[in-house]
Amino acid sequence: MQKVFARPATLLETGFHFCPGCHHGIVHRLLCEMLERYNLQEKAVGVPGVGCGVFLYDYIAIDVCEAPHGRATAVATGIKRVQPDHFVFTYQGDGDLGAIGTAEVIHAANRGENFTVIFVNNSVYGMTGGQMAPTTLLGQYTTTSPAGRDSRNDGYPLHLAEMLAPLEGVAFAARVSLHTPAHVKKARRALQRAFETQLEKRGFSFMEFVSACPTNWHLTTLQSVEHIEQKMLSVFPLGIYKNTAAATVRKEGEPADALL
């Protein structure tokens, strides 16, 4: 019998601190697969922001430099400029990147910094108690929107992939999901393109992962998968929004997932 899958060696065997049903572990595995695919273990530097993914160093056997809340892209800029031969990526949630870190990611993208942003979007502040995030859906209940997010007071969900893609410094921008095996396969292909973007020195690459947070959504694991399929994907359409290597900029009216 042929073995067709094994744990990536870069993915450390350790206790799992994430909540049951959380998709951070899948993102970690995909990252390790790509690091090993391109033999980057000795030249990779991960820069996690403050949030559920802050303990990146506990799971992936590479160099990790933690950043203050929201400043991961600023820290990554410094690391990449000092060590341009290293593969640098940030690992950030929607509260870290979409709120306090918005200015940093916009300007890093606009400058065309040659590193990769890994953005885990679960539409809520996961680590700090389930508060409303910039990506929280309209009507979604959180600890700071107990009656549901209301656009009159709270604005609308922030679409980071769509917002960053038009910037000239952005070479690759995509949004994927992790709620089914088929979507994980698509996510792996998109992440490979993001890695290649940096390796080919084409500029800023952005990978958004739509992810589950059963604990703060107050749903079971199965209900969380259904929530992504039935509610999140209509607000956050999947697909490649920009890829300068293939000139695959999404045309007006074209579904984003047509490019994935």
Task: Provide an overview of this structure.
With 260 residues, this protein is α/β, with parallel strands linked by helices. The protein has one domain (24-218, 225-243): Rossmann fold. Helix content is 34%, strand content 15%. It has helices spanning 24-37, 72-82, 94-100, 102-111, 151-154, 160-164, 181-199, 214-217, 221-235, and strands at residues 44-48, 63-64, 87-93, 116-121, 170-177, 204-210, 239-243. It has a 7-stranded mixed sheet, sandwiched between helices. Helix 3 (94-100) packs across helix 4. The protein is globular and about 50 Å long. The two termini are 33 Å apart. The model is unreliable at 247-252 (pLDDT under 50).
Summarize the structure.
The protein is of the alpha/beta class. It has helices at 24-37, 72-82, 94-100, 102-111, 151-154, 160-164, 181-199, 214-217, 221-235, and strands at residues 44-48, 63-64, 87-93, 116-121, 170-177, 204-210, 239-243.
